[in-house]
Design a protein that fits this description.
With about 550 residues, this protein is an alpha+beta fold. It has four domains: about 1-195 and about 210-235, no CATH class; about 240-430, no CATH class; about 450-485; about 490-540, no CATH class. It has helices at about 1-5, 45-50, 70-85, 110-120, 180-190, 240-255, 265-275, 300-315, 340-355, 360-375, 385-405, 410-415, 420-425, 435-445, 455-475, 485-490, 520-530, 535-540; strands spanning about 10-20, 35-40, 55-60, 90, 95-100, 105-110, 140, 145, 285, 290. It has a four-stranded mixed sheet with strand order 3-2-1-6, sandwiched between helices. It has a two-stranded antiparallel sheet with strand order 4-5. The chain has a two-stranded antiparallel ribbon with strand order 7-8. Strand 7 and strand 8 form a beta hairpin.
Length: about 550
């Protein structure tokens, strides 16, 4: 079945994407709606992520999150996917004949909490990492669980394995193990009788209490009904967008001493329990009070102000990034309200320049290497040798961060970065597996809400109307649509009568703002146009 599917290029390769959102545009969870989107990968790279090629297969209504009932809502889609796997008679316009069209789901796209909802895999606690199923890196702290010990991914002969500066112990263990196909089937077989909904009389397991047999799955997902699902090597993508967001927020919080900071009293007590970094331990004062000494990885007030002044001075090309000035606090010493794409730009491009000369060299080197890692991982073209090099570099980068920041810094989202090169080797470029196009589609669905009393009906009606208009516009030749228009002229207002100097296809910053020029500036502009236009050359000669 599988070789015959791969031989026919007409068979569809699909991706499932889902996430919960509030249709009213509020950043709260009082209303949670879950659309399930289907993406088609049998298209050119520039069309795979287009909104017109993203199909909304399901719309799970609110106001509550579906939770374990997600599989009940997913059943209609599973039935259609089973029919598509067996084959559906389809007309081929190229050969003027019929053939059996088949389809397969390559992977799912979601953020990390939605991964647990869709797959049934536990994404919290000691086994929060979906890859580290045996002897994970998780460790209990005073208030939470951290993921330290990335020395286990280094070579057995690496000098850092014998160092006591990380957690006060030497490290001789190997990498955490993964479940085989047979072991995964045994875990799911025990959950085949789990019914949807919330069970009565359940008791929560206290944090810090480990079971003898770890519970890795909360239920058997409906996706396992697909006959090919157990053979997929990458059924669920880790969302690089939110991983970058969490890492960037954690770095800025601890370096700039923001309110959401990982450098807390409990973090200092954790260092004291481990017996490492005595210069950061809590100090007792004469009046029997306890003070927290200043950390060498945090900036002073003058350095924070200098970093924020640098952010205010940055100017980006049109459409490259948002205005970071709006994220600077009123006193000019804090960065707040960053969006996911802001963190994407900061981590990969800005922090490497802005922190130079303001922080210790070890911190600067680690942040630069981390930004370069994500920059190469998110590039349009990937090479196998480069990904293998990134796979060898990321444990070293995380170990450098472990020597600098307290263990509380290393939550599961920081740890997941170590598995990203392996996923890229299986998937390819990152654009096929992250949440940016899905989040844009969610924003479009939010804009469809007109009747706030019936948000699901508003989204469904507007989506069907948009699908019909999109289908009709692809066959219109005498009407300007988004399929036949000239995008450069449409977006930048260039016409056939404009001078070539204005037909560069680039929209500059401030192009929509009216500015009054004095005579000196006006004469400079006229001189530039006259000396750089082809139409003026005959007159100049």
């Amino acid at each position: 079945m599988f070789p015959s599917f791969a031989r026919d290029a007409r068979n569809l390769r699909l991706g499932l994407a889902t996430d919960g959102f509030n249709p009213f545009g509020n950043m709260n969870t009082t209303y949670s709606m879950w659309p399930v989107l289907v993406k088609v990968y049998n298209l050119p790279p520039w069309s795979c992520t287009a909104a017109s090629n993203c199909i909304m297969a399901l719309l799970i209504p609110g106001p509550k999150s579906p939770g374990k009932d997600f599989d009940v809502f997913l059943q209609p889609l599973i039935e259609e996917l089973l029919k598509l796997w067996e084959g559906v008679s389809t007309y081929d316009a190229f050969t003027s004949g019929k053939f059996d069209l088949r389809a397969v789901v390559l992977w799912c796209i979601h953020d990390y909490p939605a991964l647990g909802v869709l797959s049934g895999r536990i994404t919290k606690g000691y086994y929060a990492c979906i890859y580290c199923n045996k002897d994970p890196l998780s460790r209990s702290l005073r208030k939470k669980i951290c993921y330290i010990g990335h020395r286990r991914y280094l070579d057995k002969t690496h000098k850092w394995r014998r160092s006591l500066a990380f957690d006060g112990h030497r490290e001789n263990r190997g990498e955490p193990g993964k479940l085989s196909m047979h072991e995964t089937s045994e875990c799911l077989e025990k959950l085949k009788d789990v019914t949807p909904g919330k069970a009565d009389g359940t008791k929560k397991r206290k944090r810090g209490q480990k079971d003898k047999e770890p519970k890795l799955f909360s239920r058997r997902s409906a996706l396992w009904d697909l006959p090919y699902w157990k053979y997929l090597k990458l059924p669920h993508n880790l969302d690089v967008m939110h991983i970058e967001k969490n890492i960037c927020d954690a770095l800025l919080g601890i370096i700039l001493c923001l309110e959401k900071n990982k450098d807390t009293v409990n973090a200092r007590l954790d260092l004291q329990d481990m017996g490492i970094r005595p210069d950061l331990h809590l100090e007792e004062d004469e009046d029997n009070s306890v003070s927290m000494p200043a950390a060498w990885y945090s900036m002073e007030k003058e350095e924070r102000v200098a970093f924020c002044v640098f952010l205010k001075s940055i100017r980006f090309p049109y459409g490259y990034a948002s205005n970071l000035t709006r994220c600077i606090s009123s006193d000019g010493s804090k960065v707040q309200g960053l969006k996911t794409h802001d963190c994407h730009i900061l981590l990969q491009r800005i922090l490497a320049i802005g922190l130079r000369g303001l922080v210790h060299k070890d911190i600067y080197v680690a942040v630069v290497e981390l930004g370069k890692f994500f920059q190469e991982l998110c590039s349009r073209k990937l090479k196998v040798d480069r990904l293998k090099r990134l796979k060898a570099e990321i444990p070293v980068i995380l170990c450098k961060l472990e020597k600098i920041f307290p263990p509380d810094f290393f939550h599961v989202m920081v740890h997941l970065a170590i598995h990203l090169p392996d996923e890229a080797l299986l998937r390819g470029p990152i654009q096929y597996g992250w949440m940016y196009p899905i989040e844009r589609q969610m924003g479009t669905l939010k804009g469809y809400v007109r009747n706030r009393a019936r948000p699901e009906g508003s989204i469904t009606e507007a989506y069907i109307a948009n699908e019909a208009l999109t289908f009709c516009s692809s066959y219109m030749e005498d009407v300007v649509t988004r399929f036949n228009r000239d995008d450069e002229k449409w977006h930048h207002g260039a016409t056939d009568g404009d001078l070539p100097i204005f037909q560069h296809g680039v929209k500059l910053l401030g192009a929509n703002r009216q500015t009054y020029l004095d005579d000196k500036e006006f004469h400079k502009i006229c001189w530039y146009v006259l000396n750089n236009s082809e139409e003026v050359e005959p007159y100049l000669r």
